[in-house]
Automatic annotation (TrEMBL):
Residues 51-78 form the Rho termination factor-like N-terminal domain. GO terms for biological process: DNA-templated transcription termination. Residues 23-49 are annotated as: Disordered. It comes from Gillisia mitskevichiae. The lineage of its organism: Bacteria, Pseudomonadati, Bacteroidota, Flavobacteriia, Flavobacteriales. Transmembrane segments: none annotated. This is Rho termination factor-like protein.
Length: 81
């Protein structure tokens, strides 16, 4: 498939997300996050972060309904996105 869009930071992740059925916009948002494609076996220490930090991360990856989510819901959404 491949795209010539040089604004995509992690092309392989972008293509994989498209193959899973994500929209081009959402795939690009996720693939362009600073830690796109970084693997570590752990989603991150979300519990130690503030709700505001979690909201900002949720916004970066395009989680809808984030403004009405509690901290626990944001953590769940980030881990399962």
């Amino acid at each position: 498939m491949g795209t010539s869009n040089s604004r995509i930071k992690n092309e392989a992740q972008y293509e994989a997300l498209l193959d899973k059925g994500y929209s081009k916009e959402k795939s690009a948002r996720i693939a362009n996050t600073p830690d796109a494609g970084v693997k570590g076996g752990k989603a991150g220490d979300y519990e130690g972060r503030t709700k505001s930090d979690l909201y900002t991360q949720a916004k970066k990856v395009g989680i809808e309904g984030r403004s009405k989510m509690s901290k626990a819901e944001l953590i769940n959404a980030l881990r399962n996105n």
